[in-house]
Amino acid sequence: MRYSMLFMFLCLSTLRVSAQAIDRVIVERYYVQPGASASEPPLVTYRVFIDLAADHELQMVYGDARHQLKFRTTADFYNDKLNGTEYGDRIAVDRLNTFPLALDSWLTIGAASKEHMGVPLALDTDGSILECPPYAGYDLGSAGPRPTPLCSADGLLKVPEIKEVVPFKFNTEYLSTVRGNEIESTIGAWGVLGGTKGVTDDNVVLIAQLTTTGDLFFSLNLQIETPDHQAVRYVWSDPVEGEILFDGLTYGKPLKSTVAERY
Hints:
The protein is mostly beta strands. 4% of the residues lie in helices and 32% in strands. The protein contains one helix and 16 strands. The chain has one helix at 2-11; strands at 22-33, 43-52, 57-62, 69-73, 106-107, 116-118, 156-158, 166-168, 182-185, 189-196, 204-212, 216-219, 221-225, 231-235, 243-245, 250-251. A hairpin with a 5-residue loop joins strand 13 and strand 14 (231-235). The longest helix is centred in the first third of the chain and has 10 residues, at 2-11.
């Protein structure tokens, strides 16, 4: 039943609206783990957020025949093969301090555990449930500023209820036990029934956490519900009738130029 309802979301007619539903896409460098030696690159955990306009809700992230959905890295996506999950709403809170679960790669619509919504570190106001060690962060020297230690801010805000992510024809084998560098679909989606708002007034919704030693690239499409309950589709390229182009839905030079911003 859940799958058929999500498919109905995918097939809904979408309307052009005068107000922009997306303010920006945020790519946050959530954590950096040093390489085993000076010659090995660091393991970087990225979080991808959609900054929605007020009172809008994210229904799903999808790919179709005209607009391929793709996440890719020049290395491999890193997965915690013991405690890791494919979707953020499945993460067990009592296992998060079992290193490296907090660095696992996964997809989501807002949730970052069974009890928490994910927020950018700059919007985290309630401290951290993560411990130092193991999640201390480290000094990148000339490569950039010191990341916020996750034991100071963990990007998690506890909420009374978490909505379950529902996948539709979406293969996430690279987020479980298979090593790989690309997650893509031209027929699939993941979403939540009824849509999701951000947990703070900023209305920022987390859609992915991805960890890699390589560069990150993505192209994606979104279905968003407006305050008057219209379903609007935003695509990263070649919009047709009923779709709206938003350049920030791409990240990384190999796919397309991007206006994605970072905290």
